[in-house]
Inverse folding.
């Protein structure tokens, strides 16, 4: 193998390397949870600048177009992980921290008002 060919093979191998810890996407875009039987769902609209995340979130209570709770979002991301604080217009502050497990899927722990649970979101737009 010539040195030039060896260098190209090495470069191709390095470019294809992924340590498996995280997809190479970021949090920019629109995200939503799956709708639960009551019709409730949550949407995130996120924008990243470096490691900082800002945006808004909406929580729709159900199919009856019940009350809509809106949040302002601030937080940080590092490759594959994130931690967000969601401050509502009124009510308890929420946190959502977790991982970007696929380029278009988040999973993590949502905590608010003394309760917490695992929530997943899928990207629905840019």
């Amino acid at each position: 193998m010539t040195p030039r060919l060896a260098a190209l093979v090495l470069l191709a191998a390095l470019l294809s390397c992924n340590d498996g810890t995280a997809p190479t996407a970021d949090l920019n875009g629109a995200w939503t949870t799956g709708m639960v039987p009551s019709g409730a769902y949550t949407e995130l609209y996120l924008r990243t600048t470096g490691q900082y995340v800002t945006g808004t979130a909406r929580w729709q209570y159900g199919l009856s177009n019940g009350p809509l709770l809106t949040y302002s979002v601030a937080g940080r991301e590092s490759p594959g992980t994130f931690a967000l604080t969601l401050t509502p217009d009124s009510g308890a502050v929420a946190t959502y921290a977790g991982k970007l497990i696929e380029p278009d899927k988040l999973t993590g722990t949502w905590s608010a008002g003394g309760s917490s649970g695992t929530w997943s979101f899928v990207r629905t737009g840019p």
In short: The longest strand covers residues 68-78. Confidence is low (pLDDT under 50) at residues 3-24. The helical segments are 3-16.
